[in-house]
Amino acid sequence: MRRRSVGLLMAAALVVPTTAAVPAEAHGSTKRVVGYYTNWSGYGRNFLVSDLVKNGSAARLTQINYAFGFVDAQGNCLSSDPWADYQRPFTAEQSVNGKADEPGQVLNGNLNQLKQLKQKYPKLRISISLGGWTGSAHFSDAALTPASRAAHVKSCLDLWLKGNLPGLPAGAAKGIFTGVDLDWEWPASEGNPGNVIRPEDKQNFTALVHEYRKQLDRLPGRHDLTAFLPANPAMIDRGFEVRQLFKDLTFGTTQGYDYHGPWETLTNQQSAIDGPAGDPTTPEFSSQVTIDAYLARGAPRSKLVMGVPFYSHGWTGVTDANHGLFQPSTGPAPSTFDAGTEDYRYLKAQLANYTVYRDNRAGFAWLFDGTTFWTWDDPVEMKRKAQYISHRELGGAMIWSLDGDTQNGELISALHRNLR
Question: How far apart are CA 303 and CA 247, in angstroms?
């Protein structure tokens, strides 16, 4: 059942201009701007840590979550890609400080680049993000008992915060990370096939978060503890003791995307602020539903950081009716990397082939060319999301993921300058 009627669909074809980057000083808000940088961004996408400086993202971010560290079957933390994390050398042109990595230097890879980024932006917080869709298989085992929780947390803090990386001198990466972001997908709910799940994950996740908080507080300095949280209220209730969790979390980021996608045959929105009229699917998935669910379960507004996507979901073979919205398809749309999903910067280059439609009441947009349909989060929609976050007095915005933006950072610019 829908929360409330949102009236008739208001969709109009628009030409969307490029939004130029603006100085960070234009944003006087204290709200958080959190962005995920992935350790695979530097491969096919060729989006390096230094690109965060070049496109203006680093100046606008309050925190980077570096994704992902994994958890093994014994509950220990490990690097999911040692080459990308701390072994890959960078040229002067590729590096943050403009100097090439030298043969034999102790620390290379993204961690060394993040270290340089912190030197350039001393107020920037950086957390190691653990888990993700493909790295959450053994969280349930790690969280199972007091002993397993204590050992897991010790392992992760030793590896990432104390910087004791395999094969390198002790403390080689110390001080790069100022916190831990937990991306267990999902406690007590199925995620990636093969993940261990248990009914008691709900209580054990609360205990795991508390163990992280205890051990982090023993370290010198201030350390952040955050968690990535699902959009689905049913999953929230199965796996999360919201009020208790937020007592130990610095803040929590909500999934503000993937409400619908090409794993379904019907086209739909992936990040609408409110449920659109005419949506034939139930239950409703929208940011309003998600935010209301966390507030009703005791999450403080100031600690709720709403996720926004820098990518689109797409379908092809779509019936040419209703501008493609809520129509059957023959499958995921072709794309650069993963069928049915496309980074904003790549899709924007194809914009001349599409018409842009917007539902201004429900708060989302899409592209359609008569047969291919893409969800569309552009600067106009980023402004809309920032205004919603500000209106509801939430803690800020979280971006998945930073490599989807353009060379002039038009998405993060629009988001950043409209947070109040």
Answer: 10
Catalytic residues, by residue number, are 185
Tokens at 407, concatenated: 């060379």
Which residue in the block uniquely carries the two structure tokens 């359609």?
368
The CA angle 27-33-34, to the nearest 5 degrees, is 165
pLDDT above 70 (res 4)? no
**pLDDT tens per residue, range 152-176:** 999 999 999 999 999 999 999 999 9
Name the pairing type of β-strands 179-183 and 125-131: parallel
Report the CATH number that the domain containing residue 230 is assigned in CATH: 3.20.20.80
pLDDT digits (tens, 9 = 90+) for 91-134: 999 999 999 999 999 999 999 999 999 999 999 999 999 999 99
Range of the domain at 267: 30-312+379-417
325 located within any domain? no
Q: What is the pLDDT of residues 373-404, one digit of tens each?
A: 999 999 999 999 999 999 999 999 999 999 99
Is there a domain that residue 128 lies in?
yes
Tokens of 93: 């042109």
394's CB contacts (< 8 A; 6+ apart) are 31, 291, 301, 302, 304, 305, 306
- In sequence order, what are the residues at sequence separation of 6 or more whose Cβ sits closer than 8 angstroms to the Cβ of residue 104? none
Q: How many CB atoms lie within 10 A of CB 247?
A: 14
Residues contacting residue 101 through CB under 8 Å, at least 6 positions apart: 89, 90, 91, 95, 108, 112
Residue 79 near residue 86, CB atoms below 8 Å: yes
CA distance linking residue 72 with residue 303, whole number of Å: 30
Q: How many domains does the chain have?
A: 1
Mean of pLDDT values over 316-345: 98
Q: Which residues contact 57 (CB under 8 A, 6 or more apart)?
A: 35, 51, 402, 405, 409, 412
